[in-house]
Specification:
It contains eight helices and four strands. By secondary structure, the protein is of the alpha+beta class. The protein has two domains: 71 residues, Glutaredoxin (3-Layer(aba) Sandwich), CATH 3.40.30.10; 131 residues, Up-down Bundle (Glutathione S-transferase Yfyf (Class Pi), Chain A, domain 2), CATH 1.20.1050. The protein has a four-stranded mixed beta sheet with strand order 2-1-3-4. Helix 1 crosses helix 6. The chain is globular, with a radius of gyration of 17 Å. The structure holds glutathione. This is Glutathione S-transferase family protein. It holds the Pfam family GST_N_3.
């Protein structure tokens, strides 16, 4: 199975880690901004990453890809079956993909990606998102994180993975999430990053991240 995309994308990281947690082998092939292999060009009609290629089956969108993987290997590893836990897991995935990513991308894109793709960074937009949008997200997480540290069911699930992925990107270029101002958030983020599947993904993306962070 091939994942087309750039490893540091929160959506790409989400499917890479999800696959690892499900015991599904994936090969990651670089793609993005309209450039990549046939599987990406044909499988992602709007040029977004990730795209999936499984033989002759092409699919885009991280949530669709995760749904496919979960159906291939049914089990509760990442998506609980109990109705309320399952629904809350999907809420946190949606929250990560839309609310967190909408704010986080302004910070990560403008402080890390723009220069690399030869676009003019809007640093004021990044500063505004950091000062005005992200604190509401951190406050929310600080309020909902249980004492055991995981968002749903007392264990690592898609909820933690999806909500954390865009914050991991923000943390590359902003001290706030790990500053200690939101102690439960900082502890949760550290626990997510320490998860072997996530740690392996972060190690694999480090060479791609390094030039983005170079002064
Ligand atoms: N809903 C999609 C979002 C994918 C997405 O927006 N990916 C970004 C990278 S983080 C992208 O491809 N951006 C390039 C573009 O918008 O042209 C998913 O879950 O996969």
């Amino acid at each position: 199975m091939i994942i087309h995309g750039a490893r540091p994308s929160p959506f790409v990281r989400k499917v890479i880690v999800f696959a690892a947690e499900k015991g599904i082998d994936v090969e990651v092939q670089p793609a993005g901004f309209g450039r990549g292999g046939e599987g990406y060009l044909n499988g992602s009609p709007f040029g977004k990453i990730p795209a999936l290629e499984d033989g002759d089956f092409l699919l885009c969108d991280s949530t669709a890809i995760i749904t496919y993987m979960d159906a291939l290997k049914p089990g509760e590893e990442m998506i609980p079956a109990e109705p309320r836990a399952r629904a809350r897991t999907i809420w946190y995935e949606e929250f990560g993909d839309t609310i967190v990513q909408a704010a986080g991308a302004k910070i990560f894109f403008n402080r890390a990606v723009a220069r690399l793709v030869k676009r003019e960074p809007d640093l004021a937009a990044a500063d505004r998102a950091e000062a005005e949008e992200m604190p509401k997200i951190y406050d929310y997480l600080e309020g909902v994180l249980p004492e055991d540290g995981w968002l749903v069911g007392g264990r690592f699930t898609l909820a933690d993975l999806a909500a954390a992925c865009p914050i991991i990107n923000v943390a590359y270029v902003s001290d706030a999430p790990e500053s200690g101002q939101w102690p439960k958030l900082a502890a949760w983020l550290a626990a997510v990053k320490a998860r072997p599947s996530v740690a392996a993904a972060l190690e694999a993306e480090a060479p791609t991240i390094a030039p983005m962070l170079a002064k």
